[in-house]
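lol ok so funny story. i was supposed to be doing the assay writeup but got distracted and ended up predicting the structure for this chain instead. priorities right. anyway since i did it might as well share w the group, maybe its usefull for someone
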Amino acid sequence: MNLLIINGNPGLCSAYSDFAGFNELQVDTIPDNQILYNGRVWRNLYTNVKETQFLFSREFLTGSVTMRGKTFSNIMIKYDILKDEILTPGSTGKILQLNKEMVDSFSLLFNNIKYQFVKIQGDSLSGPEGYCNILHRGIYSLYVKYVKKIGKLADEGKYDKFYQINKIYLFRNGVPYPVSSKNDLVKLLSGDKASIRNFINKNNITISKDYPESFIPVLSYLETQR
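and the output, tada:
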């Protein structure tokens, strides 16, 4: 595991060249850092849209990134869930968009909770694709894909505004199924449906796609019954 200190080397960026509306970042310094800085300079194209395109906060958050098996810890990153891209501060003061093809996984720390994301290559119309937060791993695995859209004139009828969608997937025997409610979840689970519903009702569990973590207690309960 590599510890990377951002902005520690003012001479890191050696050259920029225009490419598809961005600047391509080229690096010729420390080999271990080259893989992280293989990306493009990011430009905010949505300054007139209310709210933010980032997950959790518009500020940089502490996290880690694993690229082609190499992990960089204690770096500052933002997750743009409109474009499904990871950003980090570059050594020249610019913001760098990481090369998504090279990213395996990353983590974010927010409100003392660590969120772990993996990149999924979607192979079906119903399954997730891109960076997904791992909510639960066990007999059943649960993932959430955070997405932001732009609502036209959604703020006071005058301004465009970002809004968030949570797409939740239950993996059963390695196959992903979208779930958004208690009924969706119970239908996909094996075992006594009545006992599962009784557990939910007895413990006053409210399952909602707006709070993806609300699905976890039911999965944990099922695993204790085996």
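The chain has one domain: 2-179. Helices lie at 31-34, 182-188, 193-202, 216-224.
back to the writeup now i swear
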